[in-house]
Amino acid sequence: MLAAATICASCQTDSSPDLSRADPIVSNADYNAREDCLQREVARLLEPKNSPMISLQNIAMTATDFCSREIAAKLKGRSASTARDDQIAAEQRAFAIGLELREKNVSR
Predict the structure, then answer these.
(1) Which residues constitute the domain of residue 95?
(2) What string of DSSP letters covers 9-43?
C-alpha cells in the first residue's frame, strides 16, 4: 500500500526539472542579448508608420521567434512548458516594446 502511494505521489508531481539550479541553462547574457535583439527587431519592423494594432501583435511574434531561437533551444531540452512560458513572456515584452516605440513616435 505504501509503495503504491509513493508511486502515485511521484506521478502527480511535476516532472519538469528545477531550472533554478546553480548551473543555469540560460545565462543573463542570453537574456540580455535577446532584449537587445527585441529592441532592434521591433523598431525595424515598426518602420511603416500607423500600422494597425493587429500588426503589432504580428511584429511581436516575428521578433520573438527571431530573437529567441537560442534560448528556446536550450529550454526545450529541459522543459517544454518552461520553453512555452518563456516564449509567451518574450512576446509580451516585444509587444510592450512596440507600444513604447509607437508612443514615442506619436509624441514627436
Answers:
(1) 23-106
(2) HHHHS--S--TTSSS-SS-HHHHHHHHHHHHHHHH
